[in-house]
Amino acid sequence: MPAYLLDVDTGIDDALALAYLAALPDTEFVAVTASPGNVDADQVARNTLALLELCGRPGVEVAVGARAPLSIPLLTTPETHGPQGIGYAVLPEPKGRLSPRDAVDLWIEHARARPGELTALITAPLTNFALALRKAPDLPDLLAKVVIMGGAFYHQGNTTPTAEWNTHVDPHAAKEVYAAYRGWPLEKLPIVCSLDTTERMELRPAHVAALAEAAGAQVPELVLPDQPAGQRSTSDNTLVRHLSDALRFYFEFHRLYDQGYLAHVHDFFAAGVAAGTLEYSARPASADVETESPLLIGTTVADFRGLWGAPPNARIVSGNNPEQAFHELVSAVGRMARRLG
Ligand code: BDR
Ligand code: CA
Fold first, then answer.
1. Confidence (pLDDT) at 161
2. Which residues are registered as beta bridge partners of 285?
3. Which ligand is located closest to the Cα atom of residue 151?
4. Which of 38, 153, 265 has the most ligand 1 atoms within 8 A of CB, as the residue to mutate?
5. Does ligand 1 come within 6 angstroms of the Cβ of 10?
6. Angle at which helices 322-340 and 238-256 cross, to 10°
């Protein structure tokens, strides 16, 4: 049974990633921690707790760690994910309480307690993970698998022309993480889902409609480009209603940036890679992050040819299959939503 340590900045696509993992019957959430990114860390934690409860997973330990990036001020992105990070969705107040524990300590404690068992998935800036690696440099050995959503290697950025959001929020943390993985054997290296492949994950209104149908919702879920911006779902299925409200905001955001009425669901793809349910291929590379240049801060570079003379420190995802991924998403989350009603 896959057991996960998750670090998220929920976040519309983080929400979809969490819902997807919750929908898989054998998922164990060991702990879910919040990094500041899309919204501040405390809001991330509240969103995460509320969402896990909505997905029928109450009682998961959700904790905050760092409240700011390692070396630069936090910049959040309400224009991308909405004021509370979940688009137009207004999640119910969580019934559970946030953990008083520190996210970084939790990761280390669980990794030490179950060596070689836990899968780590980070769909947020790498702040907490970098801090965990500082305190426990043996983490790469303790974790069974590490999947990171971040970076843009041979692909344009989504925050600056060359930088991806998670890496741009905390470039120093990302640089530390890549440095920490130098010298580890290939099978221990993080699997990195960058914009090169996550931007192929174009979720569209038809997928939302299919999700509602799979959930057995009575009202067809039609999220259409010509509807007034901000229109809310009236679905009789609770999870479909919230996901639809979240995704509509993401569709409008992507349209604003001329990418079409669709949503790049980066974090869902990374979750599927972590779960081993989505098709992908990866190539080893030596990766690094620019932290000094004002022009290129947060830019990730992958050396696939060994030109730096440095050993690989990452496995960069180079191929994926969006059709298979969305089929899997709709059937798994649809099934869960039908069960929860
Ligand atoms: C990443 O940035 C965030 O806004 C998303 O949640 C995703 O993790 C994509 O660049
Ligand atoms: Ca995210």
1. 98
2. 314
3. 1
4. 38
5. no
6. 140
The verdict on the CB of residue 123 being under 6 Å from ligand 1 is yes
- What is the atom index within ligand 1 of the atom nearest the CA of 14? 6
Read off the amino acid at residue 71: S
47 lines ligand 1 (CB under 6 A): no
Question: Checking DSSP bridges between strand 202-203 and strand 263-264, what pairing results, if any?
Answer: antiparallel
Residue labelled with tokens 């221990």: 188
User: Is 207 a member of any domain?
Assistant: no
Domain containing 324 equals 3-201+262-340
Q: Which of 75, 121, 149 to mutate to test the pocket of ligand 1 (most atoms within 8 A of CB)?
A: 149
Q: Is residue 221 part of a domain?
A: no
Tell me the CATH number at 47: 3.90.245.10
pLDDT category at 197 given cuts 50, 70, 90 is very high
Residue 256: helix, strand or coil by DSSP? helix
Region of 183 (left: φ > 0; alpha: ψ -120 to 50; beta: rest) is left
Q: Is the CB of 169 under 6 A from ligand 1?
A: no
Q: How many domains does the chain have?
A: 1
Categorize the per-residue pLDDT at 226 as very low, low, confident or very high, splitting at 50, 70 and 90: confident
Q: Does residue 232 lie in a domain region?
A: no
Q: Is 178 near ligand 1, meaning CB less than 6 Å away?
A: no
Structure tokens at 149: 């959503």
Asked if residue 220 belongs to a domain, the reply is no
